[in-house]
Amino acid sequence: VPGRAEFFSQAEVGMRELVRSRELGDAYKRQVLGVGVDSLLIFAVYLFGTRMLGRYDDRDPAEQMQAAIDPPPEWVRQRRARAQADPMPLRTAYIGFAVTAAAIVVAGVSLSRTGDALAEVTGLGSTFVGSTLIAAATSLPEVVATVTAVLSGAYDLAVGNILGSNTFNMVIILLSDVAYRGGPILSAVDQAHAVVALVGLILSAIAVVGLFYRSRRSYAGLGPDSVAILITYVLYLGLLYGLR
Q1: Distance of alpha carbon 171 from alpha carbon 44, whole angstroms
Q2: What share of the chain is helix, strand, coil (3-state, %, to 5)?
Q3: Helices (H) and strands (E) in the chain, counts
Q4: pLDDT at 24 over 80
Q5: Burial zone of 1 (CB within 10 Å; 0-12 exposed, 13-18 middle, 19+ buried)
Q6: I need a labelling partner for 240 at 20 to 30 A (CA). Which of 67, 124, 182, 198 fits?
Q7: How far apart are CA 44 and CA 57, in angstroms?
Q8: Residues forming a β-bridge with 36
Q9: CB 201 within 8 A of CB 45
Q10: pLDDT tens, 76-107?
Q11: Mean pLDDT score of the chain, rounded to an integer?
Q12: Residue with more model confidence, 25 or 111
């Protein structure tokens, strides 16, 4: 379709100008003890947000009233009742968490090496492979945990897992910066990652709008915010592929 091809062409040109910006690269050069100032700022904001979240009440009175007006479906209430009647022992939960976390760590090491080889063999580039295939693979445990939480009626846990994982992943930049001894790590990577970060901000903004604007409309069973996130992500894949 000519219109669609023209859109992608113009968008790709705009994104290329973004990643070539000299000002964008200069912002990543400052460091403290070999660690980028941006990485330290990310960590400070994360700590501040975690503290605020700890002080924030789970639900305000208006939200509790709305939950009473719109009770969850019957199947959700049944799952909650079964979970409360037969709770998992705390020790079992701790052991299960430790074992699964260790398995994910071991798999992550192998996945990183496989991703490097895949990027070289296919010619797709490390940025594209890391931002799509590796990102999707490492998110599979989150997908399983989120779907399980939704089926159990724990909607807050499901959404919290998604948003919390995205937030914590940003803190990993600090850990990577500490391990990298060549200066600030963000100054050493491909500036095409700026596109990934920008799209991440857009997707997060859509999610925030969906949290505050509680629309009851749905399209094929999806809320308007979910549809917007899906469309944005598909467009992002096309742009990132063109920038590889």
Answers
A1: 9
A2: 75, 0, 20
A3: 12, 2
A4: no
A5: exposed
A6: 182
A7: 22
A8: 31
A9: no
A10: 666 666 666 666 777 887 888 888 888 877 77
A11: 76
A12: 111
The tokens for 68 are 């009473």
The Cα 25–Cα 46 span in angstroms is 23
d(CA 78, CA 145): 19
Burial 33-58 (b: 16+ CB within 10 A, else e): eebbebbbebbeeeeeeeeeeeeeee
DSSP 222: B
Beta bridge mates, 219: 222
Residue range 43-69: average pLDDT?
66
Which H helix or E strand runs over 143? Answer: helix 140-151
Q: How far apart are CA 57 and CA 179, in angstroms?
A: 37
Q: How confident is the model at residue 37 (pLDDT cuts 50, 70, 90)?
A: confident
Residue among 32, 9, 14 at smallest CA distance from 194: 14
Give whichever of 2-11, 13-22, 67-76, 216-225 has the largest mean pLDDT.
216-225
Give the whole-angstrom CA distance, residue 96 versus residue 152.
18
Q: At what angle do helices 155-179 and 193-212 cross, to 10 degrees?
A: 160
Give the helix/strand (H/E) hosting 59. Answer: none
Q: Checking DSSP bridges between strand 31-32 and strand 35-36, what pairing results, if any?
A: antiparallel
DSSP 63-103: HHHHHHHSPPPHHHHHHHHHHHHSPPPHHHHHHHHHHHHHH
